[in-house]
Specification:
By secondary structure, the chain is mainly alpha-helical. It has 9 helices and no strands. The radius of gyration is 18 Å and the shape is elongated.
């Protein structure tokens, strides 16, 4: 189960948090990160299995817990803003194969905005946050 949870966690990170993926790869700490995260959930997984929960349900609950601190995804947020508000730039970046790279750069450029707003599930629909991100993206794309 541990290796499967590591695989699923890594897949989640690749698709939802490429900024974290690049950072972990740059530091050569992918394996350590995945092992630490998965090892922290194994007592819960063992307890759930002991209670007779089906394996798929245990895996799903564990993955939800493992990814909780990775949500909401700044990557997906910025990607959706670019796609909605800067469609031509989005298409151009995607065609050139640099969309993910540029979004990761934008996460860094928008770091203070996310921090100032305390980016979370509760405020990811905040229009002031979105306007601030749009402004930063506009500056970045100039």
């Amino acid at each position: 189960m541990q290796s499967m949870l590591k695989e699923k966690l890594w897949t989640y990170i690749v698709h939802n948090n490429p900024d974290l993926m690049f950072s972990l790869q740059e530091d050569y700490s992918v394996t350590r990160y995945l092992e630490e995260k998965v090892n922290s959930i194994m007592p819960v997984a063992g307890q759930l299995l002991t209670e007779g929960r089906p394996l798929y349900a245990v895996e799903e609950l564990c993955l939800e817990t493992l990814t909780e601190d990775l949500k909401p995804s700044r990557y997906l947020y910025i990607r959706s803003v670019i796609e909605e508000e800067f469609k031509q730039d989005y298409d151009r970046l995607k065609e050139n194969g640099v969309l993910t790279f540029e979004i990761v750069n934008l996460i860094e450029a928008c770091k203070d905005i996310f921090s100032d707003f305390g980016f979370s599930r509760e405020n990811e629909e905040n229009r002031h946050l979105k306007y601030a991100i749009i402004g930063q993206i506009h500056q970045y794309l100039l």
